Amino acid sequence: MGRAPCCDKANVKKGPWSPEEDAKLKAYIEQHGTGGNWIALPQKIGLKRCGKSCRLRWLNYLRPNIKHGGFSEEEDGIICSLYISIGSRWSIIAAQLPGRTDNDIKNYWNTRLKKKLLGKQQKEQQSRRGSSLKQDKKSSGNGESMVPDHNQSPYWPQLPVLAAPIPYSSQEQCIDSQDSMRRLLIKLGGRFCDDDHVINDGTTLHHFPNDSSSADRQLYEQTVHMPSYSSSPMDALNNNIGTQFVNSQYTVNGANLHMLQGQSSFSSELQEMARSNLQRLDGMEFIYGEGMVNNRAVNSCESIGWGDTSSLVCPPVASEYEGIQQQGMLQEYAFSELRYPGAQ
DNA sequence: AAAGCTGGCAACCGCTCAATC
DNA sequence: GGATTGAGCGGTTGCCAGCTT
């Protein structure tokens, strides 16, 4: 019954690998292969290491043709595209970058790429804010802005764009989702404005007085904010990926939260990121609730493993990953190009 | 020059899933 | 069919080098 124990944890060396250990492991694997059994490997070689540790060392460092550091713009683009499409599935992302390991990519994303993108976003926001302030001054003329002061607080313009275009099945759900939405916004590093009725389309700010008729607002939201999905949200996502959200803005009806129009490409990336990772982001549960995913109802309490979610994300990447073919890659490149024009 | 801080990276930990008994 | 283990994966931690004060 069962198999032999993995390793004697007390007799196992931890910490950095010595050149001698590296040499032993490399020489053995190059000559004999792993034999399909990592656990037995260290004993055969005479290494006081856990099999897991050997495997990791080989895969991340000793394996031939491993590249370290020096990520190109092209690789950046691929990583971003895939991260946004499938989330932090580093092994899958690594498989698209020959010579790169999942650990390397993970570290690169966490330490550099994420900051790089955030920095880019902040720059764009600042310049946009600068130009819109000029416009405000011009258009208001008398110095009285249509925009309430609170909208100029630092909390307002940095709101990340979040897509929540999935129709709610009930008003209650929508209202109950406020906390989830807040948590998500915080998690994504964004800020939100609690003030009612204020909508920012990226260039002008519209203020709905409290006594605005709901019909007016509904019309406004229908014509400007809410994209309509013909079948399912995810169909739309798949069909319009990379284009639709940039030009969309949303209000969450009754939720007192407002999504800003694509203030930057990175904002829409976060949108996508949020959409494709909903089941893994705390606070995203509000999006699905009992909503539809690819035309099937999803119970909000159901735990959805990644293995079950192939239908939720970009098909070429998530559902048929094993053979990501050129078609898939081309899609990713196109997607990337939309967000990083000229980056490749 | 030294102490403290920060960022990058290697390695470990803990979990899930598949394979095996 | 259930128990156990191995493989693989993503998240986290700890160390170290470089930078700042």
From TrEMBL:
SUPFAM superfamilies: Homeodomain-like. Residues 117-154 are annotated as: Disordered. Keywords: DNA-binding, Nucleus, Repeat, Transcription, Transcription regulation. It is found in: Nucleus. Gene3D superfamilies: Homeodomain-like (1.10.10.60). Residues 9-62, 63-113 form the Myb-like domain. Transmembrane segments: none annotated. It comes from the Eukaryota. Residues 9-66, 67-117 form the HTH myb-type domain. InterPro entries: Homeodomain-like_sf, Myb_dom, SANT/Myb. GO terms for molecular function: DNA binding. This is Transcription factor RAX3-like. The gene is LOC111314902.
